[in-house]
Task: structure prediction
Amino acid sequence: MSELERSLAALRVDWPETPDVASRLELRRRRLRPVLAAALAAAVALGAAFAVPQSRGAILRFLHLRGVTVEHVATLPAAEERPLAAGLGGRIDDAEARRVLGGPFLPTPHGGLYGRDGIVSTLLAGPVLLSEFGAPELLKKFVTSSVQWVEVAPGVQGLWISGAPHVVLFFPDASPRLAGNVLVWATASRTFRLEGPGLTRADALVLARAVLGTTSG
Result:
């Protein structure tokens, strides 16, 4: 026997125990069963809801976009008609807007800024009200008019609300007010809102893309 053969014969290797793969797979299956059952139940419930006209209508009555909830109603709640500039809050500077929004107000340059309850606004020519906020849920809208999903820019979705006036709860402690045509859209960190009595969808999209600094779409 050569020296190499003797060395290999004398070499002791402590191999780890063979894992019980079958038991581990069975344990994993047991853990997944409740999760899969819950997911299946949710899918069945959602499918059943959409199969019933009344339930389907209730689900489709609500639309959500970061910071904004839109609810279709048969009759609008009582609301006041006020100028666009009413109740926007006190005048603030760019430094305060940056603090509130976590970044600069867009677009820059811009007109005078107003701030209230986490919302920063300015008036554009038209007149058109541009508001921006970063909080996850601020605005509530009640509509009887048309609501359409639109692509503001690649990867940026929005809601175009037009036709008859709708009701907006613009601030938590403010009275409901009537609003005209509105475009709302959201990025990863901020929600934007454009409103104007004579605002058209085409003009709103042009303004929105200018705010975002893009001509795409």
Summary: The radius of gyration is 28 Å.
